[in-house]
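for ur thesis appendix - TonB family protein. copy paste whatever u need, i formatted it the way the template wanted (i think)
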Amino acid sequence: MEPKKNPQLDLKRNSKLYFSIGMTCVLLLAYMALEWKSYDKISEWDIGLNDPNLLPPEEVPITIQKMELPKPKIQTPPEIKIADDEEKIEESVIEAEDTNQDTEIVDVEDIEVADDDIPDTVPFITIENAPVFPGCENEPDEKAKKACFQEMMLKHINKTIRYPELAQEMGLQGRVSVVFTVQKDGSIGDVKLRGPHESLEKEAGRIISKLPKMTPGKQRGTPVKVPYAIPITFKLN
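the 3d part is after this line
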């Protein structure tokens, strides 16, 4: 059976090829449009000084200036005055102090030794021999004695403290900062209190007043004053 149409005259025969060629051309034109660059025209030289009136002269005239030297100053010679003769001064003879075999030697007992500059007050942390709380005398070293001192202080506070009734009724609680000084004789003095209420401060002062007499602290073997600070906390159950 013969076809109705001539294959050579079929328009859809090469449609895919024409479509591919068209798409390629469109993509090529789009790429060239995106990559096209243009630049502004810039002169390679400045034409702002093309006005001949603005240009400097070709030759600068040479000028000669004469400098006048300063006139020399004539100084008059100083006037020499003859002083009167002074009284005759007797010169003292300086004797040598070098020792020799005839020099007497001073006894060691006659030599005065300056006293050590020991401060009157030494902090608890830096003192050589801290104050000793009763019951801490048998500790092996100073570190242990200081630790025992702090432990005994806490025990004394817990044993002696009594919550003030006024503070309980008012619902007062807080921390009272206490600073006292172990005097040179081992007694307690210079008590300073600071707290949230007077009733709590008063009770903290009563607790410190109940402290026993201690062995005083020493610095290089000399008794000194030793301040100590400890907080006392009042807390309602």
